[in-house]
Design goal:
The chain is α/β, with parallel strands linked by helices and 486 residues long. 44% of the residues lie in helices and 20% in strands. The chain is built from 19 helices and 19 strands. The chain has a 15-stranded mixed β-sheet, with helices on both faces. Strands 7-14 form a two-stranded parallel ribbon. It has a two-stranded parallel ribbon with strand order 11-17. The two termini are 39 Å apart.
């Protein structure tokens, strides 16, 4: 065949594939219009290659996987309603801490999340302090240690934690570890096998086909959670992974500013429940739900502080983007202020509209992102959206370092800290969690942290974005178009 015939054949094949994928995206996967447009753009300008990219990165979770995740999941209510001393939603409506935010509490409750009172919470702003306390808590563990991390690296930090986990497993403490196949891809499997040899148990979330990491057809769906639950009494979550970079050891991204929490109180039940759901799926565990209470995973509640929390989890297994809807509710019902910290700011239309409405209603909105990016493609899209935020009068800050914090502070009594970034990936593609903290004390503490972060940041306005070179503006526009694919 001559060149023209081959070209026409390839063009015909690519158009047929595009049409088939369009049918799949519209009628089977029911993708959002902007997502469909983005993928059609890629497949049109990169025929055949675009198709392969879609198969690897864009195809949705199969019905079998969705069904299996839902089958293994245990509702928080199925566990917590069987524990004495936990208040019902009706009792929560009478709680002085919650009475002004009952709409938010009710929304989260509709997602299966109990308002859990009596929590003592410690906030970390760097990895070293968090790691120090986590190691100390692991050393003191008597019954069980449950860890779940997007990145558990085979580096100095990872080796230190892994050595301790193996030691505790040999002592007879139940040790369970979940790691994400993509996030922890640089760590060899022998690194995790040593824990199994010591008597611990390991689960790999979304392992690749035939254990060949280059053949992972779920590459685009990641378990981005960072959880640690010790003896069912102490719980950790936030942005800090088990990795040297997150301890501030990455020279190009210093200072590394992150946010994590340590919690003691009934709120730990919610984090334990999220871990159990993921463990049941990735290890095919069929333990009857109530047996977890008998095994001591949910000990009697202790009143250790005055913060009430609701822990929200979300993922691509659900059509409802629970964390995003929670954030939107927090924003549109704000009375005074909304402060957002995120490494990536790529809001969808709903989130964007919520910020616009809040700003026009007189709410003080401030958004802080890193000045030093770790992913340039995502950062270009972030700058594009921040330009519009600045044009709307929203204050924009660039932290002088890498800001990995995922926090939202609202008014004087609400605070969200977790693993979820303000972008399409975290809202729709990743498995995430966040803790909504109802507490004036914790809100005030984080306000002081945010104020210090502002001093360590550069406030930018519209002129900052307009002065960018034309190539940067072009890349910003292009990455914004493709942002729904990140």
């Amino acid at each position: 065949m001559d060149y023209v015939t081959i070209s026409l054949l390839l063009f015909t094949i690519s158009m047929c594939l595009n049409f088939i994928l369009l049918i799949i995206m519209v009628f089977l996967e029911k993708r959002k219009p902007q997502n469909i447009i983005a993928w059609l753009t890629v497949m049109t300008f990169l025929p055949l290659i675009g198709f392969m990219l879609y198969v690897i990165f864009g195809s949705g979770l199969s019905r079998r996987v969705r069904k299996m995740i839902k089958k293994k999941a245990i509702s928080e209510r199925d566990i917590i309603r069987n524990i004495d001393g936990i208040q019902t939603l009706e009792e929560a409506k009478l709680d002085g801490i919650l009475k002004h935010d009952i709409e938010l509490v009710t929304l989260c409750y509709s997602f299966g999340c109990y308002p859990l009172p009596g929590n003592k919470i410690k906030i970390y702003t760097n990895g070293e302090d968090k790691l120090k306390d986590l190691i100390d808590d692991i050393k003191k563990a008597k019954k069980n240690i449950h860890l779940e991390y997007y990145i558990f690296a085979d580096d100095q930090t990872g080796k230190e934690v892994m050595k301790l986990l193996c030691q505790k497993a040999k002592e007879g403490v139940e040790v369970k570890l979940i790691y994400d196949s993509v996030g922890s891809r640089k760590a060899p499997r022998r690194f995790f096998k040593q824990l199994e040899k010591a008597g611990g148990k390991v689960g790999e979330f979304f392992p690749p086909f035939m254990n060949i990491r280059l053949l992972n057809l779920k590459l685009n769906y990641r378990n981005h959670r960072k959880l640690a639950i010790i003896d069912g009494v102490i719980g950790y979550t936030g942005g800090i992974n088990i990795r040297d970079d997150h301890m501030g050891k990455h020279k190009k991204l210093r200072p590394w500013r992150d946010t994590h929490i340590r919690m003691i109180g009934s709120g730990v039940y919610a984090l334990q429940n999220i871990f159990i759901d993921d463990w049941r799926y990735c290890t095919n565990d069929n333990t009857p739900p109530l047996l977890y209470i008998e095994q001591g995973y949910f000990p009697s509640p202790q009143i250790c502080g005055n913060a009430t929390i609701q822990a929200i989890s979300s993922g691509p297994d659900s059509q409802v983007q629970k964390i995003k809807e929670t954030f939107v509710q927090m924003i549109i019902n704000a009375k005074n202020r909304v402060y957002i910290q995120t490494p990536y700011f790529i809001p969808d239309d709903v989130f964007f509209a919520a910020l616009r409405i809040a700003k026009k209603s007189g709410i003080d909105i401030r958004i802080m992102v890193p000045k030093k990016p770790d992913k340039h493609t995502v950062y270009w899209a972030t700058l594009s959206y921040l330009k519009e935020m600045s044009e709307m009068g929203i204050k924009v800050y660039l932290y002088n370092g890498f800001l990995h914090s995922k926090a939202i502070l609202v008014d004087d009594n609400k605070l969200s800290i977790g693993t979820c970034n303000t972008d399409n990936r975290s809202f729709g593609l990743n498995f995430e969690d966040t803790v909504i903290i109802y507490s004036k004390e914790m809100n005030s503490e984080y306000d002081k942290i945010f104020q210090q972060d502002m001093k360590d940041s550069q406030e930018v306005n519209v002129n900052y974005f307009q002065k960018k070179r034309w190539i940067t503006k072009f890349l910003q526009a292009l990455m914004r178009l493709l942002s729904s694919l990140f």
